[in-house]
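hey
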């Protein structure tokens, strides 16, 4: 968590995404995303975003932001 954002990063690499939940919204939205393919990793930017979404929604549930 950074401020009111759930931030998922790949330490040492260029993948990062921040999610937030606006008031009245049923789910999370992306505040910013850096997921350009990093050739040092076997994981693509799209694969990172899919895993990050799962982690962020799990965290949002724990925080009571979503059901």
């Amino acid at each position: 968590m950074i401020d009111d954002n759930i931030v998922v990063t790949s330490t040492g690499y260029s993948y990062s995404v921040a999610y937030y939940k606006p008031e009245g919204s049923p789910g999370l939205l992306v505040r910013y995303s850096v997921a350009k393919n990093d050739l040092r990793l076997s994981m693509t930017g799209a694969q990172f975003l899919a895993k990050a979404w799962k982690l962020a929604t799990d965290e949002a549930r724990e925080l009571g932001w979503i059901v």
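The mean pLDDT is 90. Residues 6-62 form one domain.
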